[in-house]
Specification:
The chain is mostly beta strands and 129 residues long. It has no helices and ten strands.
Length: 129
């Protein structure tokens, strides 16, 4: 399984922006759809955004539509989550995750069982009011 490392989290004021990165350990990373999930204190982990293995499709949860964008640079084995117009309720640990099968679309990431695919260790995002 490919290993994933997230970075880019931090503290930002409401209305601000952050860009999260997810780097894969090898080029096999480029064969997988990838999703961003988040977990706020006391809440279950939830799907936020995803991109297909080739970048042709993206999919977003309703609560991030119009504020977050997702992209990938397969030359760098990396996927990015650009988060704009951040709100205090976006405060959470953000995780990236691959689909367990190669060459899938983005939307399937939103319905994966929690124990499938590879997960990164997470990066903390805190939005102050």
């Amino acid at each position: 399984q490919v290993e994933l490392v997230e970075s880019g989290g931090g503290l930002v004021q409401a209305g601000g922006s952050l860009r999260l990165s997810c780097a894969g350990s090898d080029r096999s990373f480029n064969d997988y759809a990838l999703g961003w999930f988040r977990q706020a204190p006391g809440k279950e982990r939830e799907f936020a955004a995803a991109i297909s293995w080739n970048g042709a499709s993206t999919y977003f949860a309703d609560f991030v539509k119009g504020r977050f964008t997702i992209s990938r640079d397969n030359a760098k084995n990396s996927v990015y989550l650009q988060m704009d117009s951040l709100k205090p309720e976006d405060t959470a640990v953000y995780y990236c995750r691959t689909h367990p099968r190669r060459f899938t679309t983005a939307q399937v990431m939103s319905v994966l069982p929690p124990d499938s695919g590879s997960w990164g260790q997470g990066t903390q995002v805190t939005v102050s009011s």
